[in-house]
Design brief:
mainly beta; Maltoporin, Chain A; 4 helices; 22-stranded antiparallel beta barrel; 4-stranded mixed sheet; 699 residues
Length: 699
């Protein structure tokens, strides 16, 4: 470990604040609670970490992941954050929002899964640390993230319960504001809810200029109805979430968002049968329209280079489970699946004869069946043991282009003909296994050992991208890629060791892990002569072997009654196993630390965020290295205790107090020639000094 590594770790051990400590209460999980010492909630189970978006000027819900040990976000724009967990990102990480696995309509993940419900309407976001349970999703190779929107509560008695929350905030760094309102009215049997939000901001500033274009505008809404029987044994819920993102910049991608609009409908049922069997069912449907272009936010573009892309995603998902008490635990058996269709067409608005049928009625259907047992097999030992089988079916219609390189005999035409001549339908049968063993030493200390075999089939971009393009689910490395129909599924083998030590005064939860991935999907130089004729540096998705290892830990201690110190440190290293090279877009060693004064009325303190140099970069992606940096933040909250003001909360603070200039390694490379102070191909800068204020009222 070099001096910079030691510097980050030592500071993390001195003083800290953690915002990554609120988790949903998990039924039938008999694990003790932590004392209520965390800024944003409690750790209700040692293996689940969660966050409530109560502090700061965060707009993109994905940015909350920076507060979770081991997690981070690949930022391609103000509303285009892609989840990363322990070095894996994109389709490798399963994201579940209110029971739906939202699929991006944009082939470049501008509308990433966590962008559908804004932060202000998010109740909690939680991550199961380590190996995700087989019941959490079909493809959870890189972990499972659960985003839960505000839903309200049923009344406990015969009175009508009226509750809600309004959240508002402003940021100086980009002259931004956001405002939201959520309200619900409920009896013991019926519950109606409504939510709406709006947010808008300009380009954010930094010490070297202005990051162009990082402006954004988004409106969102939600409606819902719930019904519960008198005995509370059966509950139905129907909801609809709508997202309307307007012109929004993504400077690390070849185009910006013109609009992304559409909704997700969710239906769920949960019931108790024969007083001991729990049945749950979930159904979701999404229909998203997305448009992007390279001229609305990037100034004049030549007539020949003007591009616009129209994209759609339509599909549905479902899940049904039966929870059966068995021995000293419970057996959960279930089926799940989803079916999604994608279309993407590239046009030149100035040349009507030009078009590229990029993805034509691409289908990706997933079907799963699983069984999972959790329980105690002795006084001091508990276990989770699960397995699932997934059947993945993919298909695509013929494609093509008109004019230019698609004239007969040209390279584009050769690529189209070659693709259309192949059989597009592919089927994969994948098997996942998870085994986690926990030893309870005493009331304060647990040790957990886990093993997982996880799988993921190729994305539709990785299999069906027939033309060298940047349509790569948000890789943002500046390269053009070519798909590969013959790709094999990724198979991951992971081992994990963790300790959970908790007392009334403090806690420490360290984890170490090692993961080997067979047939990891990575871009390597193509040998396709037609593709090379169009772009000499084209990469083609291929199967390689890779491994990742690292650790993450969060810890905290309360002292002098009203003071607390918390910390979080994460480290992951990703390497190719077949040759000397590193995996692309891996976060360096980083930590979040702070010291806070915390009473019922006041919260005030300082936090320090540190990132090490990232020199272990991917040669095949010509990945740019990034230097380390430290950022100081001042944060405060006032929560008046007067009865008439109960529920009011005022937040204020300064982020990047010293106006530090830095480059975030997980931000994409700049593609906007108009960017102020950032050359094309350089990492996008981090935000400069930001004064923020928030006002919320909860009733």
């Amino acid at each position: 470990m070099n001096k910079k590594h030691l510097k980050v770790v030592s500071i993390c051990l001195i003083t800290s604040t953690s915002y990554s400590s609120y988790a949903e209460e998990t039924e039938k999980t008999a694990i003790k609670e932590l004392p209520p010492m965390i800024v944003e909630g409690n750790i209700l189970t040692p293996d689940i970490v969660g966050i409530r978006p109560d502090m700061g000027g965060v707009n993109d819900a994905a940015a909350l992941l920076k507060r979770v040990p081991g997690a981070n976000v690949n930022s391609n724009g103000p509303l285009s954050g892609i989840a990363q967990y322990r070095g894996l990102f994109g389709d490798r990480v399963n994201v579940n929002t209110d029971g739906a696995t939202y699929k991006s309509a944009c082939a470049n993940a501008m509308d990433a899964p966590l962008s559908h419900v804004p932060t202000s309407l998010t109740e909690v976001m939680s991550i199961k640390r380590g190996i995700a349970s087989v019941s959490s999703g079909i493809e959870t190779l890189g972990g499972n993230i659960v985003q839960r929107s505000r839903r309200g509560e049923f009344s406990d008695d015969d009175d009508i319960l009226f509750m809600g929350k309004t959240t508002n905030g402003v940021n100086s760094i980009n002259s931004a504001y956001y405002s939201s309102l959520f309200t619900s009215i409920a009896s013991k049997n019926h519950k109606f809810r409504f939510g709406a939000s709006r947010e808008e901001g300009g380009n954010y500033e930094w010490d070297g200029g202005e990051n162009i274009d990082t402006s954004h505008e988004r409106n969102a809404g939600a409606l819902g109805y719930g019904y519960r029987t008198d005995d509370e044994n059966h509950e139905f819920d129907l909801s609809y979430n709508y997202n309307d993102t307007h012109t929004t910049g993504t400077p690390s991608l070849p185009m910006d968002i013109v609009y992304s609009r559409g909704g997700v409908t969710n239906f769920s049922y949960k019931g108790l049968l024969a007083d001991k069997y729990t049945v749950t069912t979930e159904f979701s449907y999404q229909d998203i329209q997305h448009r992007m272009d390279n001229y609305s936010l990037r100034g004049k573009v030549s007539k020949a280079a003007t591009r616009q892309s129209n994209n759609t995603a339509r599909g549905f998902g479902y899940k049904a489970t039966l929870d059966i008490p068995l021995y000293d635990g419970s057996l959960l058996i279930g089926v799940d699946g989803d079916n999604i269709e994608h279309d993407a067409k590239i046009l030149n608005p100035n040349v009507s004869a030009f078009s590229i049928n990029n993805f034509n009625d691409v289908k990706r259907d997933r079907y799963g069946i699983f069984a999972e047992w959790k329980g105690d097999f002795s006084e001091d030992w508990s276990m989770e043991l699960g397995t699932r089988v997934n059947w993945i079916r993919m298909d695509a219609n013929d494609i093509g282009g008109t004019a230019g390189p698609f004239i007969k005999g040209k390279a584009g035409a050769k690529l189209a003909n070659s693709f259309n001549a192949k059989k597009h339908e592919k089927e994969d049968l994948n098997v996942d296994v998870v085994a986690v063993l926990t030893h309870h030493f005493n009331d304060e200390l647990d040790i957990e050992m886990g093993f997982g075999r996880k799988t993921r089939s190729p994305s539709y971009q990785e299999r069906y991208l027939w033309l060298p393009l940047n349509a790569t689910a948000g890789l943002a490395d500046g390269y053009n890629y070519l798909g590969n129909i013959e790709l094999k599924p990724e198979v991951s083998y992971q081992a994990e060791l963790g300790f959970n030590w908790q007392t009334d005064q403090g806690y420490i939860l360290p984890r170490v892990f090692y993961r080997y991935v067979e047939d990891y999907i990575q871009g390597t130089p193509t040998q396709n002569t037609a593709a090379l004729a169009m772009n000499s540096s084209t990469l083609e998705f291929t199967n390689i072997d890779a491994y990742l290892y690292g650790f993450d830990v969060e810890a905290g201690f309360r002292f002098l009654e009203d003071w607390k110190v918390d910390m979080m440190v994460s480290y992951v290293r990703g390497r190719r196993a077949d040759r000397t090279d590193n995996l692309y877009r891996i976060a360096p060693l980083n930590g979040r630390i702070g010291l806070f004064y915390d009473t019922n009325e006041w919260l005030a303190g300082v936090e320090l965020i540190g990132y090490d140099d990232q020199n272990e970069t991917a040669n095949f992606n010509t990945e740019v290295e990034s230097p380390g940096y430290f950022i100081w933040n001042l944060r405060g909250q006032y929560r008046p205790q007067l009865a008439v003001l109960q529920g009011l909360q005022v937040g204020f603070g300064i982020e990047n107090l010293l106006d530090e200039s830095y480059r975030t390694h997980l931000s994409g490379l700049n593609r906007n020639a108009l960017n102020d102070g950032t050359a094309v191909g350089e990492h996008l800068p981090g935000a400069g000094r930001n004064f923020y204020a928030t006002l919320s009222y909860d009733w």
